[in-house]
Amino acid sequence: MRRVQHGPATSYDGKRWPYNVPAVAQILREGLDLAAGVTFLVGENGSGKSTLVEAIATAYGLNPEGGSRNARHSTRVSESPLAEVLQLVKSPGAGSWSYFLRAEAMHGLYTYLEKLGGSTDSRYHEMSHGEGFLEVLRRRFDSPGFYLMDEPESALSFRSSLTLLAFLDELRGRGAQVLIATHSPVLCSLPGAQVLEVGEHGIRPAVWRELQLVKDWRGYLEEPQRWLRHLLAEDG
Question: What distance in Å separates the CA atoms of residue 167 and residue 163, rounded to the nearest whole number?
């Protein structure tokens, strides 16, 4: 995937959600070039990163609740209409295989995969959330292609996040392109990855150590009480 932009034959009301979210508005106005390899969208809740990943996945033809183009499972329609106004510009010779993992919809994806059958696909609900997540990665993210993930860290421990980081490095080494919305300072520390910070400013390239996310985690881990005294009532 080379670029995401506004489809010239479509229209939208820029005063309404999600088109009025700064990052979304910027992409519809200016477009967004995606680098080869791994790209992270990082930002606070409500910044639009998950909305963007979900819309790009849907515009690519993937199931908005996760899976490949062939997946047909659905629980409750909750996705935004943003995909309808996006145009995706693919690189020449781009592979056809792609997959979307959306952390909040993994239960439905597991059920769908179990119904399909297969030696491992029939066991996802017997695994822990993190184990099932990593198993789907190993079995579905297995060739060069375009892969998308929405907040995968929600299923993973610190050490499992490192496992995913190493897996992402392997994927890009095999020629895959990956787009991830995340709150994890661990995942977005992957050397050589494109990091885009999403917020009220819109969307901009960022350096890992300068991310607000990294600064906040570092400050909290160094001195939790400096944060907690503003949140918790004093004893007595």
Answer: 6
